[in-house]
Amino acid sequence: MRTEGDTWDIKTGVGSTALFVAAARALAGDEPGALAEDPFAEDFLRAAGAEWSALLDGEAPGHPLTETEFGKDFQEYQAARTKYFDDYTREAGAAGVRQVVIVAAGLDARAYRLPWPDGTVVYELDRPQVLDFKREVLVGNGDEPRADRREVAVDLREDWPQALRDNGFDPAAPTAWLVEGLIIYLPADAVEQLFETIHSLSAPGSRVAVEQMDLLPESAAAALAEHPDQTEHARNEWIRLIYNEPRSEAAAWFGARGWTAERVDVPDYLRANGRPAPGLEPSDGLVSTLVSLVTAVRP
User: Fold this and answer.
1) DSSP 289
2) How many contiguous H segments (helices) and E segments (strands) does the chain have?
């Protein structure tokens, strides 16, 4: 259960969800016609231990990511959101934005994976233990970032705006913010504060992209917790880590403050990109039916 001062590294608590997500990205990228590929995901998983390597090698029978409807849906959803945020960053670069902030970066390897215009600075905010793990894996493999990557080792419950400035962030320059895989792990008041901070630090021409999830209905929560063995562990762990409470809707929040915002629900995004998508009924426990993706631009 989340507590006010809880802590974690890459293998425990909230940090462990980054490995689960990386596994979904890696598996989805191997599928024909995958929406997105992340070759670095496999590197992180193999460095994390034998259980993750076994999953990649097809030696993890009964694993929820490979042998349940939930897992197959989760893979498609992760590929979709990866493509969405990849496209967002490319469009920001094409519009002249050269300052990117990835909030709660986890195992995001976009600084290494994507082509960036000259002069782009990518700030990655996360807890020191998570950034240390990522750096050790990438440096150990001899990988080089394709942008000016700057680690900002800070807990988001601390003064992260000052930590960002201390690493060279310029609030007078347009910024592209990425808020991926974070909102559900924050209580409602923290989401409000996060949005307020992003708004206050954003010069004209800035952009923000947000992944958000609707309130999880009781029926969906029950469906997520119904299965035995590894599936039960994975789903119950996730349910314990999230804050399932009403929050501000990102498109409406930024739109009310003068940003031009667009929202797309993940099932619609999957269909628009030629991939199979579930129906829009959230009671079956499929995460993708609850998630939407928002992009907003500040004039």
Assistant:
1) G
2) 13, 7
